[in-house]
Amino acid sequence: MPLKQLKYLAISLLFFSSFTTANSYIQTDADAERVAQVLKENQPIPDQGNGTFINPLLPSHYHDPTVVRVNKDYYMTHCAHDNRGPIIWHSRDLVNWRPLARIDSLAGVGNIWATDLIHHDGKFYLYLPLRMRNPTAPEQHLSFSNYVITATDPAGPWSKPIDLGNITGIDPGHIVTPQGERFVYVNKGMAAPLSRDGLKATAPAKKVYNGWPIPKDWVIECECLESPKLFMRNDWYYMVSAIGGTVGPSTSHMAIVARSRDPLGPWENDPNTPLLRTWSRDESWWSQGHGTILEANDGTWWMVYHAIPNSRRSSGRNTLMVPIKWTQSGWPKVETSTSKNPPYLIPAGENVGHGMPLSDNFKTKELAIQWDFLDHMPDHKKRIRSGGGALTLTASGDSPKNATRIAQQPVNNSYELTVKVETDKGTTAGMGMLSSQGFVGLEFIDKKVIHPRRGRPVAPLKFKNNKAWLRVRNVDHDVTFHYSEDGINWHKHEWGAALSTESTQKIILYASGKGKAKFKDYQYRGLN
């Protein structure tokens, strides 16, 4: 382990051993163990240990971030196209984040787009656009609409989704006036008033904002006015929006800001628009946009947003943060160039310890928080079981695309995965990376290790029983495969593969065919 990480580990453990708080969410022993495991896995950490941080806050596909401050605590969540519900993250300094809980009430309900997390009168609200699944026909969907869920504790329980009432569009944003009036914004500059409890639209949405005219010679994907995020400062209502297109050319996405004296406008655009943009594909971050601006505990202002690492669309849209300064005329400004990924001072606050371990010994009965389902699985408790040191998957389908599977997001550019597998006869157990470009990994079936590409070459070693150790090593998109009979002596598969740099990757464990497969001692290790 690098000296800097050893030093950070020692500081973290000392911090957790002496840290006491009335905040019931913090479990000091569990947090110390979590931080130690994150460091053991060599995950990237934004906190540099010298009072500064570098982006990203969360590497990998943690996109469309929404953040809220409640006294000394910050809570963040993201867009979730998954089926287990998005993760709520917790911080006290806006830089070091720990996973708090998954929103179980959203598990399997449908496809969730960009959300808005807010806190009002002692209650948390998450506004979300949702293509709700039809419970009587899971393969079908109801009309797209905007919903809200509520909780008194960000760790849950959260309510079931409540339809706001025929508010279509995506990327909702919420604002409440000093008089208690509430409004919801969606894309294309549309807005609607809400009931005082925030649970129902009281009138149809109407157009109240026209966006900003993008210069014709700029290289963008589309106009795509979306992701309105609203806040108040000095009697002004401010709205930060994204335009230009999310995953188009590297210079397409951007953040703009407008202000008004009334929550429904008229809106005045910042004369220095855009607030944030990738100006050249040579910059460290592509497609910068979708910003939430908030004031930190120490009075500093920040924007949390997302962007794609240069030439690494496979890493998805990472969560980033930049400091905001205010001009004399009352406009927010990003003063520091983001082109070379500079360090920034960490806002004042306590360090809760950063990161989420990806390795898993499967000792807990509840599937660990880092795992997602990828599929709508009403019977997941029967098909996916954790506990006693093993993950047991009841096989289904005939390939990684339709098998019983769990997934997680890698956080390093290069990494290594190791797992022990045991299978019934006729059951395939696999591990590797899945994207829109297909599966890259290893399979084990009937005492044989198979590389399921280009003719499915079989490793020459024949296993005496239905047990094997598999290892997949990804070094900057170049992938090699390894296998072992005992987890000690390893053999390299003679064939390798390449990962696409253009398609977001997810790590999967899966079981296809018939019967069951067991996975034990899954290990994730960053190589960079």
What's the alpha carbon Rg, rounded to whole Å?
Answer: 24 Å
N→C terminal distance: 11 Å
Largest sheet: 8 strands, antiparallel
Helix content: under 10%
The unreliable regions are 1-26
Mean pLDDT: 92
Provide the structure class.
Answer: mainly beta
Global morphology = globular
**Treating each run of at least 4 consecutive H or I residues as one helix, how many helices?**
3
Number of strands: 38
The percentage of residues in β strands lies in 35-45%
Q: In a few lines, what is going on in this structure?
A:
The chain is mainly β. It contains 3 helices and 38 strands.
Q: Care to describe what's here?
A:
It is a single chain. This protein has 528 residues and is mainly beta. 6% of the residues lie in helices and 41% in strands. The strands form eight sheets. Strands 26, 27, 29, 33, 34, 35, 36 and 38 form an eight-stranded antiparallel beta sheet that branches. Strands 6, 7, 8, 9, 10 and 11 form a six-stranded antiparallel beta sheet that branches. Strands 16, 17, 18, 19 and 20 form a five-stranded antiparallel beta sheet that branches. The longest helix has 16 residues, at 3-18. The N and C termini lie close together (11 Å).
